[in-house]
């Protein structure tokens, strides 16, 4: 038997979440963002559950080729564009849409020998200062791109740094609108947070990622609790040992948790080599036997300890949910000082996956 740890992927939740997003933004087309192996869910196992999307957006050309080889014939957008001139041969061969965010990409595109012109997304830097052309450059860049025989349709895009927090989108949206006012082209701006909370950004295409997987763009579950989204991934393991400790006894490496009263401890077959965050502190929520209990002490490579003092009926072999249907990944992430995105992406290849 393998270790009892298992990730379960609920494809009906994925389809449901896409439907919910569709209802939020009926006028816009949807790029389902499936970068990073579909946020750790496994691109090849999940994409068909999103087949009603208008396109898939990702970063890695290998993932784009995988989608094509598995039969997806619709649009695929490369969110970082390409890196080398030879990438353009693959973009041509697999009919990919590419972001263009700097002049070197534009030059490579101008020089490439392609079988047909490609669709491009011209990216505007509206304050994130990561990728994209400055607003004042955009007009000139647009005209150079328009003049290239290798360019077919052009869409204008930007990405928000603060759609998920109080700073919002007002100032980048104004910068984008001002920079693009004289250009007649489709527009694509919204990530998950903007799709949920900033209707004026919806434009022609939206680009939701994390909400498709049923986690929160803010890292706080309660921000999406009313959005009718369902968690797609559940991570389960089992209790493999029980320890009864006394006041003063400690648990785990470094003795970082010390009991101040007699306690019943459950050892769970899940550790940081499975993708559980090692820096999660004592008190991080864990779901067992229909209720929340908590992590105690340092997370090991293959195990972690939880408090079973209030759960005397729980025995070796009892199922434990590390996150999922009953325990939002956001709650675990928040306790560990990160966001659900990171935990989902970090689930290790050694964790077996069941698809529902
Ligand atoms: C990752 C990404 C998205 C999706 O972000 P979420 O917060 O997961 O919705 C959208 N656009 C770009 C450019 C991205 O890199």
From TrEMBL:
GO terms for biological process: D-alanine biosynthetic process. Its cofactor is pyridoxal 5'-phosphate. Keywords: Isomerase, Pyridoxal phosphate. It is an enzyme of class 5 (isomerase). Pathway: Amino-acid biosynthesis; D-alanine biosynthesis; D-alanine from L-alanine: step 1/1. GO terms for molecular function: alanine racemase activity; protein homodimerization activity; pyridoxal phosphate binding. Its EC number is 5.1.1.1. It comes from the Bacteria. Residues 232-356 form the Alanine racemase C-terminal domain. The active site is at residues 35, 253. Pfam families: Ala_racemase_C, Ala_racemase_N. SMART domains: Ala_racemase_C (SM01005). Belongs to the alanine racemase family. Catalyzes the interconversion of L-alanine and D-alanine. May also act on other amino acids. This is Alanine racemase. The gene is alr.
